[in-house]
Amino acid sequence: MEKKTSQFKAEIAEMLDLVVNSLYSKKEIFLRELISNASDAIDRAKYLGLTDKDLVADNPAWGIEIAVDKTAKTMMISDNGIGMDAADLEKNLGTIASSGTKAFRQALKEKGGEALPELIGQFGVGFYAAFMVADKVRVVTRKRGGAAAFQWESDMAGGYTIADAERAEPGTSIMLHLREGQEEYLDYWRVQDLVKKYSDFIAYPVTFRTVDVPADEKDEDRKRREEREAKPLNTMVALWKRAKKDVKPEEYEEFYKHFTHDYDGPFETIPFSGEGAVEFKALLFLPKKATMELFMPQQKRGLSLYVRNVFIGDDIEMLLPSWLRFVKGVVDSSDLPLNVSREMLQDDAVIAKIKSAVTSKILSTLEDLKKKGERYDEFFGAFGAVLKEGVHTDWEHADRIKKLLKYPTARSDAGKRVFLKDYVKDMAADQKDIYYICAEREEDARKAPQLEAARRHGCDVLLFCDPVDEYLTESLREFEGKKFVDIAKGDVQFGSEAEQKAEKEANEKAAGELKPFLEAVKKELESKVSDVRVSTRLTDSPCCLVAKEYALPPSMVRMMRAMKQEVPDEKRILEVNAAHPLVRKLATLTGAELSDAVALLYDAALIAEGSPVTDGARFTKLLSALMLK
Ligand code: ADP
After folding, report:
1. Residues in the chain, pLDDT under 50
2. N or C: which end of the chain has fewer CB within 10 A?
């Protein structure tokens, strides 16, 4: 044929401009695109060879070669795949809308071909990524089944030419003449890195060859070079594509270590595939330990995404809800275009479906793990605090998450946690609500005076001691129809209705008797508490401090203040135990004696809940004076 020069259609010229200047932030991905095209071409040749033996009469050893010439500044990516004729070249590399691959897939679908090979590339732009690093691209290709070879050549600005060419074997070679400043791609180690990073799991060997071997190369250098060039750059194993039963646990473990740099190995390995609405394979891991970064906002999170074995990106956070950010792993989908960008993933329907399937799978894995007692406790000890966030942020899964939560309780041994379901099962006969108390440390919570009445009435109390627990109380709302009630807040009464009634009457009577005392104490502590009243919560302790029912949790107040927001000091209520001999005795005091005693009483309430006393010096002085008496 005669050499024919054509201009790119306007939309290609425009697209090329986009590709070169902005489409991909990382120029290095051109190699991934070209290797994918080559792998794709081999897939097609293999597939067509199944029914047309002539196409594969040369019995090819399928493979992809990267041949580099540092002197000429060229890189050539060759494959022995399907190849192209002049018409294919015109159609595939001269227009974008009709991507050859797309047409091929369409044809296969119409034939009802079940063995549809996994073809890479749905949008016809990958090839042009070559121009990001090359100022001139030449394609020499020979279609399987034909004898003629053709070449396509372009420097972008001058359009492209198609002409006759020579090629001994069927297949395609893409020769790039690298732009000024892109010489890094001529280096073996850089190329090896890129292949490992993006194309490690391509199913055909990708090899490297030095074209311009120096005439004076030393023997030992030649030996070393030949040795490394004899081996493929890629490992060719996509672990997530293999059936679980065919993969040894060590293989998963090795992959996990390589992938996460967490040399402890995984706690749990979860290979699974999505079927139905979206097709994908996933290989997920639960790590053994939490890292500090889990609670840092800038921490990288998310799963790695592959599209048909080709690496798209890691830390794709759209694949996981944030309360599962400790999960690591890979998702490989054939329902996404290869050139999908992060921005596109943001509201991609396929991604949303994968996220939902992944979430569900992890939840069901945890539900299974729950049956394994101690093993679950190990997991929950490491990641329970992150999991809990889901109750607050993911209403869709909140109910399933709640069932996975465990808390220490007033009755449980230190370090042991109880599922909400078990708490509810063991509730006292006349108990209507789920009781909890918040404290910064479990030891403090266990000693809280507010627990006394609950204990007396046979009610257990959940101890909320994770920093996140306090925020969660709003979102927890109810479990199995039972409300969550903070026993350190508002008016809480335990026991049967009759008991409550009797208690109320006794309280009113006591309040009447103690009225002058309560008023005197209130006056003394005017600046510190909003009210002083008789308590229903106490048995052994003389007093305690309680918040009003709708008060902000102290942890929230601390956070708001850290963010420089004005939060007025919310005064709490001092509750006294009317039956306590100390209270009865104090009620007989007056003047300075009463003043000092009330100051001590207030400090005692602070100490009991693990809070610091307001004036340590005064406290010590009062205490010494008291002991001397
Ligand atoms: P796509 O996303 O379709 O791969 P590209 O721009 O990368 O888009 O390539 C356009 C078309 O060129 C491909 O669909 C394919 O038909 C053809 N092509 C590209 N590289 C090769 C190759 N190495 N061998 C055979 N055909 C190729």
Report:
1. 22-24, 97-101, 104-105, 108, 111-124
2. C
